[in-house]
Write a structure and sequence with these properties.
Radius of gyration: 21 Å
Largest sheet: 6 strands, antiparallel
Number of strands: 10
Low-confidence stretches: 6-20
Number of domains: 2
C-alpha cells in the first residue's frame, strides 16, 4: 500500500494534556500507511493484536441516535499527535481536507466525513479513546491492497490543531463477482446491473453498497475507453412522476460515487428511467426488488 504523504502543518493531540517533552512517547511509532505532519511528535499510542472497532460511515439519519458503522476485526493502532512549540496550529477543517485529499491520491475511499463540530454522533463504545461520541472534524477512510482492508477514523479539534486516529486492518471481503467478469459483461453484453442499496424512498446509498461500487469502479478502469450511462430504475410503488425523479437522483448518486472512486465524470452520464422499464413482475415483492436497480450501460 502506497504511503500517504502530507505537506500541511503538523498538528497536536485532540483533548489531551500537553507533555513537558516534545519527543515521541516511548514505544510509539507511525503507522506504515501515513507519514507524520512536519513538526509533530507522537504524544500517545496504543496497539492491539486483535480487537473490534466500529468505523462510522455515511450520514446520520433523523431517527438514529448514532451513525451507521462498519465493524472491523483485526489489529488496531491508535495514534495521537501534538505540535511542537512554535508551530501555528491549522484549523480542524484544514486537517480534515489534508487527510481527505491525501487518501484519495493514495487510492483510498472516503466512507464518511463530518466537517464541523458535532455534526453527528458515533458509537463511542465501538470507537474508544477517540472522544465522547460527538464528531469533531472527523473523517473515515478505507484503503484496499490485495486481500487487506485498512480502515482509518480521524478526529481533529476545531482550533488548537490537534488530531488523533484509529486504524484497523482486516481481510478484504471476497468479491461475489470478479472485477474482470464485470468488465467482460460490459464489453460483451453492453450492460451490467449493480446491487446498490438505498435508503427507502431516498437517493442515499447505504454503506453496505461500498464494495459493489469499489468493484464497479475497478471494472471501469479496465475498460478505460468505454463511455457509460448510469441508469436508475424503480418499481411501480408510488407515482410515475415521483419514481422518475427518484431514479434520476439515484443514478446521479451512483455516478458521483464512481467519480469519488477515480472514474472521470466525462466518461459517464446519469439518466433516470423511473418505473418505465421493468425486468420483472411488479405484482410480487421479488419482482419489485429486481426492478429497483442501477445499471451501467455501454454507450
Amino acid at each position: 500500500m502506497r504511503r500517504v504523504s502530507f505537506v500541511a502543518l503538523a498538528l497536536c493531540l485532540l483533548a489531551a494534556a500537553p507533555l513537558p517533552a516534545q519527543d515521541d512517547q516511548e514505544g510509539c511509532n507511525d503507522h506504515p500507511l501515513f507519514t507524520r505532519f512536519p513538526g509533530t511528535y507522537l504524544a500517545d499510542c496504543e496497539k492491539s493484536q486483535f480487537d473490534l472497532r466500529g468505523f462510522p460511515v455515511g450520514q446520520q439519519k433523523p431517527d438514529q441516535e448514532t451513525l451507521d458503522s462498519v465493524e472491523v476485526e483485526g489489529p488496531v493502532h491508535f495514534l495521537a499527535y501534538q505540535l511542537k512549540e512554535g508551530v501555528t496550529p491549522p484549523s480542524g477543517l484544514q486537517i480534515l481536507r489534508n487527510f481527505e485529499n491525501a487518501a484519495k491520491k493514495a487510492g483510498g475511499t472516503i466512507e464518511g466525513q463530518w466537517p464541523g463540530w458535532c455534526k453527528a454522533m458515533y458509537d463511542v463504545e465501538r470507537m474508544p479513546r477517540m472522544g465522547n461520541g460527538c464528531t469533531s472534524f472527523a473523517l473515515t477512510m478505507k484503503f484496499v491492497k490485495g486481500d487487506k482492508e485498512t480502515w482509518v477514523f480521524l478526529q481533529a479539534s476545531e482550533s488548537d490543531g490537534s488530531y488523533q486516529m484509529t486504524l484497523s486492518e482486516r481481510e478484504a471481503m471476497k468479491q461475489e463477482v470478479a472485477v474482470n467478469e464485470l468488465a467482460d459483461r460490459l464489453s460483451k453484453d453492453g450492460f451490467v446491473s449493480l446491487d446498490v442499496n438505498f435508503d427507502t424512498g431516498l437517493a442515499t446509498i447505504r454503506p453496505d453498497s461500498a464494495k459493489t461500487l469499489d468493484d464497479a469502479a475497478a471494472a471501469l478502469k479496465t475498460v478505460a475507453a468505454m463511455k457509460i450511462e448510469v441508469g436508475g430504475h424503480t418499481d411501480n410503488v408510488g407515482t410515475p412522476e415521483a419514481n422518475q425523479k427518484l431514479s434520476q437522483e439515484r443514478a446521479q448518486a451512483v455516478m458521483a460515487a464512481l467519480v469519488q472512486r477515480g472514474i472521470t465524470a466525462d466518461r459517464m452520464t446519469a439518466k433516470g428511467y423511473g418505473q418505465s422499464t421493468p425486468v420483472a413482475d411488479n405484482r410480487t415483492e421479488e419482482g419489485r426488488a429486481k426492478n429497483r436497480r442501477v445499471e451501467l450501460v455501454r454507450k
